[in-house]
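Pasting as-is:
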Amino acid sequence: MLMASAVVRCGGALGLVALLWLAVGWGLSA
């Protein structure tokens, strides 16, 4: 269970980074 929690946390961090990357790219292209 602890491992699953770590995986979810890691996935959430990756998702945030991806969103930030998309926001930056969209802002530069806009």
